Amino acid sequence: MNGPALRRASRLIVIDSRGRLLLFRHARKNGEMFWATPGGGLEQEETFEDAALREASEELGMIPLSITLLWEQITNFIYIDHPVRQQECFFRLRGDLTSIRGDVEEIHGQENILEAKWWGLAELESSKEMIFPADVAR
Known about the structure:
By secondary structure, the protein is α/β, with parallel strands linked by helices. The protein has 3 helices and 8 strands.
């Protein structure tokens, strides 16, 4: 039996001038809540970099001044009741993001994003909430 198909996604590491990381709180259909970096799956022939730029526009309402690949990983998780194997590239965004533009709310609603929050390192390390990636504080 074959395992799950490989999904490809770009994730965004957005850090403000105070060193805090931006995470979105998501709600799964079963009511489970989790926090994750902004980002999403690649479309058709997109590169990881192209997807990162598109996701910055869609989820944050910003055009980054630059993006830098930080790391890549393969992760396995259950989405609803389906196993997912995902190749993820994490990009650091540089640009001015003082607030998330209001016109991205429709995208957030479609993706079950409930809120955005800036997290400090100590808060990330001590949190008991589900955060993806789990080792983002490192």
